Amino acid sequence: MSIVAPCYNEAECLREFHRRAAAAARASCGESFEIVLVDDGSRDATWSIIEALAEADPHVVGVRLMRNHGHQLAASAGLSLARGDRVMLIDADLQDPPELLAPMMARMDAGADVVFGQRGVRHAETWFKKASASAFYRLLSNLAAVPIPRDTGDFRLMRRRVVDALVSMPERQRFIRGLVSWIGGRQEALVYERQARHAGTSKYPLRKMIRFAVDAITGFSIGPLRVATYLGLFAAGLALLLLAYTLWQWAAGDTVAGWSSVMTAIVLFGAVQLIVLGIQGEYVGRLFQEAKARPLFLIDRVVTAGNERALPAEFCSLAPTAQREVWEATRAATTLRA
């Protein structure tokens, strides 16, 4: 059993998260578990706390990225190192309770491939956050080519085959909950109450939320391109009507020297063109990023049982199965030397 938690400036939450996650894992799996904590370029004491936890608890695997890659890539880095037959992905801020591991395991014992947390009550969130999240999920569910459950985050328990398929996907602008939905299999929802943060502040301000929403929509739907087409057709229809009106006015001899109508038409059609170009540019930009084929993330160091493990430079470019084999060999070799 693996528990993967991306961490960015979570020094105030980490020790309590470790205590609760370890207790939940022991209750469900005995001692056969690991907790993978991924430091996503934190600026506070997150990494030093992870090192201390790894030294005190052999179940902890500390992963430090070379820089801040963002939540989705940090989660992907942790999943690439997770060795469990079942893997729980969860944030370290304790808004999603680790104690739900037990009911998730029960659902998986009954045959589920993925058990995802679906947010019922959301505590300590502003009305704007709730309203914008609700609107986003409903828009996405209507646009996406695959059904993506509403009101869900990345909090979920996955089987090994789902994790391997997820890690093997090369997309840079990752939307993990959408990728898991695309993989398919038997996926079940577990409704729960989302708690307030244990400490600290949210790492998703409005700017990041908008960027995340754009990645989700453009990654799983070509709907915006169709909207651009519809806007173009609508603008063309207006242009024809304006042309007909202009000809009719000319035939009636009612021509007025002025610029208001001309400027209105220019602004209208210019705005439509810029919207269409912007939507197309978003997709072209994604193609440009993917074409460069850079590694999704770069790992600076890995610490387990208080000892630092060195991974080969090409680790991030390996297939998921090869990554896991290299990681297991690295851990075994270091342990034997010790």
From TrEMBL:
Domain annotation Glycosyltransferase 2-like: ranges: 2-165
Keyword Transcription regulation recorded: no
Cited Pfam families: Glycos_transf_2
Membrane topology listed for this record: Multi-pass membrane protein
SUPFAM superfamilies tied to this protein: Nucleotide-diphospho-sugar transferases
Transmembrane domains' residue ranges: 230-251, 257-279
Main location: membrane
Subcellular locations according to the entry: Membrane
Keywords: Glycosyltransferase, Membrane, Transferase, Transmembrane, Transmembrane helix
UniProt key word Transmembrane: yes
Chain coiled-coil ranges: none
Domain of life: Bacteria
Name this protein carries in UniProt: Glycosyltransferase family 2 protein
Species of provenance: Siccirubricoccus soli
Organism lineage string: Bacteria, Pseudomonadati, Pseudomonadota, Alphaproteobacteria, Acetobacterales
